[in-house]
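LAB NOTEBOOK - FOLDING QUEUE
OPERATOR: T.R.
BATCH SIZE: 2
PURPOSE: Compare the predicted structure-token outputs for two unrelated chains run back to back under identical settings.
PRIORITY: normal
REVIEWER: second-year student, initials M.K.

ITEM 1
FIELD SEQUENCE / FIELD STRUCTURE:
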Amino acid sequence: MQVEQILAFRLARSGLAYRDAAGLAEAAACPALDFSRDAALLAVAARLESLTRERYDAAVDSGELVVAHIVRGAIHALAPRDFALYGRALICEDDGELGRQLGTQVQRLVAEHGFAPTDALDEVAEATKDALGGGRALSKTELHEALRERVGADLMPWCKGCESHHVAPMLWRYGAVKAGARLNSERRYLLDDPGAEPNAAEAIRRFLHFYGPATSADFAEWAGVATPHARRLWADIEHDLEEVAVGERPAWALRDDRAALAAPPAASGVRLIAPGDPYLQKPNRALLAPDSEVRKRLFRPVASPGAVLKDGRLVGLWRVKAKGRGTAITVDSLGRFARGDLEDEAVRIADLRGASDLMLTVD
């Protein structure tokens, strides 16, 4: 299968071929990473016409749109119906696998103090529920302070950055996942009800819906679960899959997606896709930017730029900065496009950021 065909399929499934999502939940059907200012807001707006910051914030406050720690312990915006699917349902139950899911720092604490990762996570989750009980909404700093009063010292290593002891980062993040905590528009944590825990294998289907053809290893990396855990979930839906050759690499897609893969819709126009967008996540990176130098520029460890797409192809990189009451957007060209094609997109981004002036520079 050709790279262009796969990218066109994934672009359409990501909701970027057209800005025609029926609502916020559909626009966030593939969870949008919210690792930096406005990342999830811009991702949702890329899929939904006429979204404003006020509308987005109101939806986050009401729970119409959930912002929470889910896959990889990272904060994402997602549809409320999927809160449990991408959160609690993907927490490993085996101590060894959970240790890998929680990361090297927690594994070192396990080796040093001899506790079981499952017990540690239960302790932090219960402490989180207690701290947020009674309808309390706490900032990150306030939540850490509350956990210090409720969690054993073995789970609270010294943090040089904070110059204090607090629960190990991946442990408190996954504690929030297990507790069912989400964030409001002021970035304060509060309890919510994620609903009944679904069959975790459904997360594989959703992943392939957005990122197929792929492998169980691709899912494990995207979801932040241990490889054996991913393979067990994968085995539950093998009867729904068919093998698809991606170059010389075998991969699998949902059998029901055969027609959509064979004839994906063509994208048209220029789009400014913000860093953290679902379309810019790991499964798409090598296909979208096959040149290694371009890939290094686009996908940095920190402060990555966004992507300029023309008719679905990567033609530039863009960055945004606040300039007083205005917004400055700088575009680095990688291909051919007209400056005029960028202006409507740039205005949308400036409006969402609440800027009164826009400065657009194309290099």
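ITEM 2
FIELD SEQUENCE / FIELD STRUCTURE:
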Amino acid sequence: MSHPSRYRLIAVEGPIGAGKTSLAQRLAEHYGVEGLFERPDDNPFLARFYQDGARHALATQLFFLFQRIDQLRELTQLDLFRRGTVADFLIDKDPLFAQLTLSAGELALYNRIFAALRPQAPRPDLVILLQAPVALLQSRIEKRGRPYERSLAEGSRTGYLAALTDAYNRFFYHYDEAPLFVVNAQHFDFVRRSDDFALLVERIEAMRGRREYLNASEES
């Protein structure tokens, strides 16, 4: 199946553990296009951030920002954008993490850098937002077993996950830079249940408005 022309760039988003990378991979395979994925294991500050957030938050955040901007810049340079791409991140949501973790002075510096770099990245044609309760996010984080996320899985930073989920909800409530498709991911398994994935694709391809929703009541 060819990629719909109006969806040259799809960004899949959601809090840590929402399943955005798995869905982005599945969509890229389905449409036969390139996948563009975050590379958290490449960030040398991430493990340190989970151990001492106040000390390493700025370095962690700036590394991710430069990494993602470089990925998106490369996307346009290699002409992959024209052929179609599914990404597991939206650059516009990066400040959410900064607002939760940085001091006032660090945040001011980060915001200046973000404002300078943001115009270099293309805007998506569609954003898919995966929503899930904090308990489910913790369960998924535990199952994937990344050592540096152990504190999140064990619940010692439940407050951080809750605050992050709330920040996502507030940000995307006002988001209008691209069409937004909001999915209640608690009751769907787009990787292991083909009917769930088929329903999602059907709804994506039929989308005409700027904002639509997929809820559990529509599960096939």
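REVIEWER COMMENT (ITEM 2): Residues 50 and 149 are 7 Å apart (CA to CA).
FOLLOW-UP: none requested
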